Amino acid sequence: MGTRAIRIVSIATAVAGCAGGARPTPVAPNEEPRDPSTDHRATEDPARSGPGGTGARLEGGCGFAPTALTPKYLLPFPEGELFTLTQGNCGRASHAGRFRYSFDFEMPIGTPVIAARDGVVFTVRGDRSDGTGRVGDENFIILEHEDGEYSRYIHLTRAGVFVLRGQAVSRGDTIGLSGHSGRSAFPHLHFDVAEACRAGPCQTVPSAFLNAEPPIPSERRTYSARGGSR
Ligand SMILES: [Zn+2]
């Protein structure tokens, strides 16, 4: 492969903007969690009304038709681990604008984070302390994938980056440890899939998981990474 012109453009703004969403409040056994799609900010951007243009609003989505999405990513944590999605796509806490198609999983600092898909490490940062609460203090890993998509793993713990820029990784590899760095209300992993990261700030795009049910997780529900993939 030729020289990779890695443009480190606006890294702070590339990863800032996620607080983590609301901690889950106890839900009575028979009470349905609130459907995040009712907070439908994607209507601000008709261009993102989605493949097929149906505007179908299925659980977990916002402004696109989830059925048109081909799952390409694993949940970003090891098989068998169980975590709650505290903020999903278009979550009202901070998943708006360029961050609208994002997922926040609450997890203890130091939880292994895995590569959700084969790729090459685009950029990383791992030297910031946990718990500062400041935008721009995020530790992160960004992987680049063969179709021009990027997966991003944000709020990692200090020294919780195990990969180097330019390194090839395989789906399922442990690449780092989750944390509480940057603008983060509580320890969690922010995961999203983005595009256009070489041209400027990344723009998140809809994504779905191979080993989650449903493939687009819903807020306040708990997800376990299932073994294997479809
Ligand atoms: Zn987030």
Average pLDDT confidence is 80
Low-confidence stretches: 1-13, 25-59
H and E string:
HEEEEEEEEEEE
| Proportion of residues in helical segments | under 10%
Number of domains: 1
Structural class: mainly beta
Radius of gyration: 16 Å
Biggest sheet layout: 9 strands, antiparallel
CATH top level is: Mainly Beta
Query: Beta-strand percentage?
Result: 15-25%
Structure described in brief:
With 230 residues, the protein is mostly beta strands. The protein contains one helix and eleven strands.
Tags for this entry?
single chain; 230 residues; mainly beta; Glucose Permease (Domain IIA); 9-stranded antiparallel beta sheet; two-stranded antiparallel ribbon; 1 helix; 11 strands; 2% helix; globular; disordered N terminus; binds zinc ion
Describe the structure.
This protein is mainly β. It has one domain (39-224): Glucose Permease (Domain IIA), CATH 2.70.70. The chain is built from 1 helix and 11 strands. The protein has one helix at 11-15; strands at residues 82-87, 102-106, 112-114, 119-125, 140-144, 150-154, 168-169, 174-177, 188-195, 203-204, 222-224. The strands form 2 sheets. Strands 1, 2, 4, 5, 6, 7, 9, 10 and 11 form a 9-stranded antiparallel beta sheet that branches. A two-stranded antiparallel ribbon has the order 3-8. The chain binds zinc ion. Zinc ion (ZN) binds next to strand 2.
